[in-house]
Amino acid sequence: MKAKIVVLGGDGIGPEVTREAVRALQAVAKRFGHEFTFEEQLIGGAAMDATGSPLPDATTRACQSANAVLLGAVGGPKWSDPNAKVRPEQGLLAIRKALGLFANLRPVTLHPALLDASTIKPEILRGTDIMVVRELTGGIYFGEKTRTENSASDLCTYTVEEIERVTRVACRLAMGRRKSLVSVDKANVLETSRLWRTTVERVVKKEFPQVVLEHQLVDSAAMHLIRKPTSFDVIVTENMFGDILTDEASMLAGSLGLLPSASLGSGTLGLYEPIHGSAPDIAGKGIANPYATILSAAMLLRHSLGLNNEAQAIELAVNGAVTAGIRTPDIAAGGQISTTAQAGDAVVRAVLA
């Protein structure tokens, strides 16, 4: 297979971790006989410094013509003024919109060797395997915003179409798993959540009757994620709730550096990135955890290129590296500390073995 992959390193540790993910993809191409070409483009603060825009037109055009996009992270203290009119995060929101991406997939799978890395008891965590599907285009992040000297407002809006399409993505995933779907909202307070609940229920009953649907309020879901994470299979929720809950869920795994994500639309083109930020405090030190980005590359192979065996090869390689003790400081738990490059080396060796 031939495929063009655009790489958006971004800011902070972004270029360091995407470098290792590209090496893993190159190893896959070599082992399985594919031809992947990689094109680097700017996004976020790095793009602002170079062009004045967090998403240059050249980046958008390159991504729209690609088979998939691999992203590192954006942002940092250099551009952290909350009152600034132009911010690195705007580039991320804009590229999702430009590519028509509306469903963010965030798997939370725990490695048995890292159960002690979490602050939660291993017996509660063991067997956790969750797929969170977060809606990306609606909600409070995109609603009309106002601010005066004495007040401010952010409008939360959703359409039936936005809710329907992300529900279908979540249901299709549930059908390939345990056929269990939890829809998270705040329907006891918010009108948008009441629309969310009735729409999800209608889609599931009409189009996916085999899926067992449960509704949970977001505060209750946040509690149950910590109390009994193994009770969840697939979770579908709106933009802001999904943003918060997936960061909470990442602590089940013990580190943000372990969890990948995929942002998908109606076609095969997707954007793949770790759920962590740019971690400017450790940028350039060679100790950033690349596993989340490498696992994002595995999701790229599976969802955009349809290469499931190749995706599994990367996932098995990461599992093997972690089991062998190749761990960056965030997951070392007092053991031997590996560098970013050493973690990448271990994955490449395993893929090519």
Outline:
The chain is of the alpha/beta class. The protein is built from 12 helices and 12 strands. A hairpin with a 4-residue loop joins strand 6 (145-147) and strand 7.
Topology:
Layout: E1 2-10, H1 14-32, E2 35-41, H2 44-51, H3 57-64, E3 68-73, H4 88-98, E4 103-109, H5 122-125, E5 129-135, E6 145-147, E7 152-154, H6 160-175, E8 180-185, H7 191-207, E9 212-217, H8 218-227, E10 234-237, H9 239-253, E11 260-264, E12 270-274, H10 291-303, H11 308-323, H12 340-352
Parallel strand pairs: 1-2, 1-3, 3-12, 5-10, 8-9, 8-10
Antiparallel strand pairs: 4-5, 4-11, 6-7, 11-12
Helix pairs in contact: 1-10, 1-12, 2-4, 6-7, 8-9, 10-11, 11-12
What percent of residues adopt helix (DSSP H or I)?
A: 40-55%
Euclidean distance between termini CA atoms: 21 Å
Number of helices: 12
Strand content: 15-25%
Using only C-alpha atoms, the radius of gyration works out to: 20 Å
Description:
The chain is of the alpha/beta class and 353 residues long. The chain folds into two domains: 1-106 and 255-353, Isopropylmalate Dehydrogenase, CATH 3.40.718.10; 119-253, Isopropylmalate Dehydrogenase. Helix content is 42%, strand content 19%. It is built from twelve helices and twelve strands. The protein has helices at residues 14-32, 44-51, 57-64, 88-98, 122-125, 160-175, 191-207, 218-227, 239-253, 291-303, 308-323, 340-352, and strands at residues 2-10, 35-41, 68-73, 103-109, 129-135, 145-147, 152-154, 180-185, 212-217, 234-237, 260-264, 270-274. It has a ten-stranded mixed sheet with strand order 2-1-3-12-11-4-5-10-8-9, with helices on both faces. A two-stranded antiparallel sheet has the order 6-7. A hairpin with a 4-residue loop joins strand 6 and strand 7 (152-154). The two termini are 21 Å apart. The model has no long low-confidence stretch (mean pLDDT 95).
